[in-house]
Amino acid sequence: MKRKMKYLLAICLCPFLLTACTPPPSYVINVSPSDLKLGSVKGGTSDEKQEGSQITLEVNENMPETNPFICWIKNGRTVVSTEKTLNLTYNSSNAGSYTAVFEEEAKKMRYSSLTKIDCQPEGYSNVSFQLSVSAISSGSTNYSLFTEGSMNNGESFLTDNKTICYLGNADGLNVYRFQISFELGNGENTDKFIYVFNNTLSDSLFGDNETCTITEHSDELKTDISLTFSKLTYSLYHQQ
User: Fold this and answer.
1) What does the pLDDT look like over 29-79, one tens digit per residue?
2) Least crowded by CB within 10 Å, which of 26, 104, 151, 172?
3) Type and span of the H or E element at 80
4) Class assignment of domain 26-103?
5) Strands laid side by side in the 190-196 sheet
6) What CATH number has the domain spanning 111-237?
7) Using an 8 Å Cβ cutoff, are 73 and 64 in contact?
């Protein structure tokens, strides 16, 4: 009887013992500056750390008056903070690569943000959209979600400038194509429409300007569709 009880106790405790012996998952947080000449970062490591570990990233500006720190960008796509100090916990949502971006000359800026979307189709009162992007310079033909939102017809959709396209190095090697999916409502019915932009986004489209706009006309919607992008600057996120 005692032997049977021991077996039963071992079977009951086995799942708990296995759980206790399994270490927590590990993650990697990589950190780098956008340009070593303009600044550096402290606290970064390429080592794996167990879930729940803490890390503090700090920015050092080499030329704060002319080339100040702008923001932290995660995985080349999303602005996560505009503070010089960034505290992170190692977990699945925070794992990835973080870049401290410093302001550069307009013609050399490596990053741009989506700033505004305009579309005023006739016969509709509200416009919902999903904007997708494809990095055609890397040979990709697949679109991935870039941003989404909604607006009243006649109004512009203004972003928080946190959705980023990496334009490449100083030679501007990256090129992007966009596709936008609409849900258009008039109070009674909802229509769906997909438009693929012929014009692409690249560094050359900006020239020496801080903004650029891709505008194309849709015969079906009887309106222009415009995407406005801004190169990342300090004033874009910090009021003077």
Assistant:
1) 999 999 999 999 998 777 889 999 999 999 999 999 999 999 999 999 999
2) 26
3) strand 78-81
4) mainly beta
5) 144-152, 126-135, 176-185, 190-196
6) 2.60.40
7) no
List Cα–Cα distances, 96 to 44, 64, 152, in angstroms.
Answer: 12, 27, 36
Q: Pairing between strand 39-42 and 54-61?
A: antiparallel
Residue type for position 106: A
Cα–chain center distance at 222: 31
pLDDT tens sequence across 19-43: 556 878 999 999 999 999 999 999 8
How high does pLDDT run on average in the chain?
87
pTM, rounded to two decimals: 0.84
Which run of H or of E encompasses 27?
strand 26-27
96-118 burial by CB neighbour count: b if 16+ within 10 A, else e? bebbbbbbbeeeebbbbbbbbbb
